[in-house]
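step 3/5: co-fold with iron/sulfur cluster
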Amino acid sequence: MRPYEGYVYAYPHKTAYRPLDPRPPLRDVWEGECADALFLYLHVPFCEMRCGFCNLFTRTGAPAELVAAYLDALRRQAEATREALPAARFATAAIGGGTPTYLEAAELTRLLDLAETTMGVDFASVPLGIETSPATATPDRLAVLAERGATRVSIGVQSFVDAEARAAIRPQRRAEVEAALAAIRAAGFPALNIDLIYGIDGQTPATWRHSLDAALAWRPEEIYLYPLYVRPLTGLGLRAHDWDDQRLGLYRQGRDHLLAAGYEQVSMRMFRLPGGASGTEYCCQTDGMVGLGCGARSYTSRLHYSFEYAVGVRHVRAIIDEFVRLPRDAFTVANVGFTLDDPERRRRHLIQSLLQAEGLDRALYKTRFGADVLDDFPLDEFAGRGWVEEDSAHVRLTPEGLAHSDAIGPALFSPAVRALMGSYDLR
Ligand code: SF4
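step 4/5: write C-alpha cells
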C-alpha cells in the first residue's frame, strides 16, 4: 500500500459531488438540523501567485473590481443564507482560501462586517481563524484582524530555505517570511500556525531540520507538516518509490523533532503546544458547517453541498465570473452536492475520527449509530500491518498508522464515492 494516496481533509471529497436536480431550497436542506453551534467558513478564492503544489480553488491577479464584485456577491449569498437559517448560531468561524489577506485592509473589514451583521457572528466570543501568506501578512491587514478578535492566524511558509521555496514554485525570500512572522506576533493573536512542506526537490534531512528549527524559533502554537503531492519536475527526478521513502523519512524526522520540542501530535499533519490557545472545539464529525463563497462547502448531516469545483485556471476564472453575477435568488438553493445515507454517515465519522491521533471514541460511535464501530468496519487489514490498535474505549492509529494516514483514509472510501471520484471530469 503506497503511503501517499491522498489527503483526506473531508469525506466525501468534492469530486464526489454532482449537480443536484432539482436543486433543493436551503430552507429544506437545513430543516430539522441542529443549528445552534455551527461553523461559518468564508472562502476568498484569490492569491498573488499560483504555488506549484496547489490544487485548491483559487485564481491569481484578480483586479480590485473583481474583488469588490466578489464581496458584493458574498453579501447577497449571506443574506439569502441567513434568511434560510434564521435560528443559526455560530460557535466558530474561519476565513480560508486562496489567500484571504489578498484582500486589502478595507476589504477585510467589509468581509468581517458581513459575517457579523448579516450572519450574526459575535467575534467577541467566537474563535476566528484566518490564513495568510508571507507577502500579504502586512501590519495594516493584521491590525484589522486583531481588532476584530481573530484568534488564530495560519501562515503558509512551506520552507525557510529560499531555494526550496523556488523549487516548490513559490518564490519568496526568507527576510519577507521573518518580517511577516514578526508582524503576526506583534499583532498579538492568541495562536500562530506555521505550515511547512516536506518532499521538495533537493530537500535533505539537514535543510528540513533548518526549516523546522526556524519555525520553532517563533514557538508557534501550531505547526502543520504537509507532504508535497505534486511530483518534482526538476533536478534529480526522483522515482515514485524513492520519493515515498524521502517523504516518509522526512515525516518521521519532523514528527520526532516536534515531539522532542514539546509539541503534541493531533494528526499526521498537525502538531500543537499543549495548553495553547483554545476556543470552542468544533467537532467536524457531527457539527454543521455553513460555507460562503464560490469554493466553500457546506455540511448538514444529510447533505454536503457547494458550487461547481475546478482547479484549472480557465475554469476557476469562469466559475468566479459567474458567481459574482448571481442574483440573490440564486443563493437560496444548493447547487452541487452529495447526499449522505446512514452507511456514509458512519463511514464519514470513522474516517474523520480515526485520522486524529486521539482516535475514535467507541462509546460515542455507539451512541450515535447504535453499533460497535468494528462490527461496522472490521479494520483487520490495518491491524495486521500494525497500523491500528484498539482498547475498550478507543480505536486509534499507532504511530506508524498515523504515518500512513494518507493511505488509510482513501482505502476507507466507499465503493460509491470511489466510483464518483473516479468518473469526475476534473477541470
Ligand atoms: S497561497 Fe495557498 S491557495 Fe494560493 S496558490 Fe499557494 S497554496 Fe494555493
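step 5/5: annotate
The chain has 16 helices and 18 strands.
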